[in-house]
Design a protein that fits this description.
The chain has about 300 residues and is mainly α. The protein is about 70% helix and about 0% strand. The protein has 11 helices and no strands. α4 packs across α5 and α4 packs antiparallel against α9. The N terminus is likely disordered.
Length: about 300
């Protein structure tokens, strides 16, 4: 007698995931939105200086002038030591009317222009020679740094013996004051050009002139403009000292004569004109730099 047995498979005890209901889906979406909401509302902190303000560089000088005028009007300044701004302007008007100031300004501008031109040409040529040639660097760089270590105004007695007491030594001293910062900054920029650009130029088979025009000049321009700004300022600083040595005209001569007669207002006229010349020339260099280097994206732009 055969007995038939039936084997029953064990029931599947694996828990099944509950089906998503509309209520569950809405709750999850609300949770995600609640977590993301604070992040969306959190403002992004700006790290840049912000937009450039129009005529922002004039704010400081105008504020200083306003404080000077306010202190003079309140009687806080001794008129004999620091005359009021309106007194200085009146003195400048008198000097301009009698023809003294135009002559002195023209003489100072001429001396500064000659010395600056020579210093600019010398600084750029020496920087290129030292930056593009190991031989030039060996001959030039150490000599220029030695010259930089010697106070330039201390060379005045020696240059007077060499070049005389006339205009030549004044222009030569201004040229030395100008060429040193231009050389140092341009040479540093040339030395800092990435060697990968040089390798790329070699792979592309660029000629020497094409290499200078496409690699060297763009790489050296930022440093050159820094040196140019320092050179422009240095030309005015050297001029104010040189024009007090055996000069018969110029702003420095005018200030030296005013010192002998105790004319503080005339001295302030000369200082203000030097300051205006320095600010205007520096602004012109910055404007040219911004136009020439418009391809760069920097923090200031």
């Amino acid at each position: 007698m055969t007995t038939n047995t039936t084997t029953t498979a064990p029931a599947d005890t694996t828990p099944t995931a509950p089906a998503d209901t509309p209520a569950t889906t809405a709750s999850a979406a609300a949770t995600v939105a609640a977590e993301a909401a604070p992040r969306a509302r959190r403002p992004r902190r700006a790290l840049t200086p912000g937009r450039r303000l129009p005529a922002a560089r004039l704010t400081g000088p105008v504020l200083l002038l306003a404080l000077w005028a306010a202190a003079s009007a309140a009687g806080q300044l001794d008129p004999g030591a620091i005359p009021a701004p309106w007194t200085v302007l009146r003195t400048a008007g008198h000097l301009w009317t009698d023809g003294t100031l135009p002559t002195d300004v023209a003489t100072s501008l001429r001396r500064a222009a000659y010395g600056f031109s020579l210093g600019l040409a010398g600084g750029v040529l020496l920087a290129l020679a030292a930056g593009l040639s190991r031989t030039g660097e060996a001959l030039i760089d150490g000599t220029v740094n030695l010259n930089r270590a010697i106070p330039t105004l201390g060379l005045i007695p020696l240059f007077i013996l060499w070049l005389g007491i006339g205009e030549t030594f004044k222009i030569a001293i201004i040229a030395i004051v100008v060429y040193i910062p231009i050389y140092l900054n341009t040479h540093a920029a040339l030395s800092g050009i990435d060697s990968r650009f040089v390798e790329l130029a070699e792979v592309q088979g660029l000629s020497r002139w094409a290499f200078i025009r496409q690699i060297v000049v763009p790489g050296a321009l930022p440093g050159f403009f820094v040196g140019l700004r320092l050179g422009v300022t240095g030309s005015w600083l050297g001029l104010v000292v040189l024009e007090q040595i055996n000069a018969t005209s110029g702003l420095g001569y005018m200030m030296f004569q005013a010192q002998n007669y105790g004319q503080t207002d005339v001295i302030l006229v000369g200082l203000l004109i030097y300051g205006v010349f320095g600010l205007v020339s520096d602004s012109v260099v910055r404007l040219v730099e911004r136009r020439v280097l418009s391809w760069r994206r920097t923090l200031s732009s």
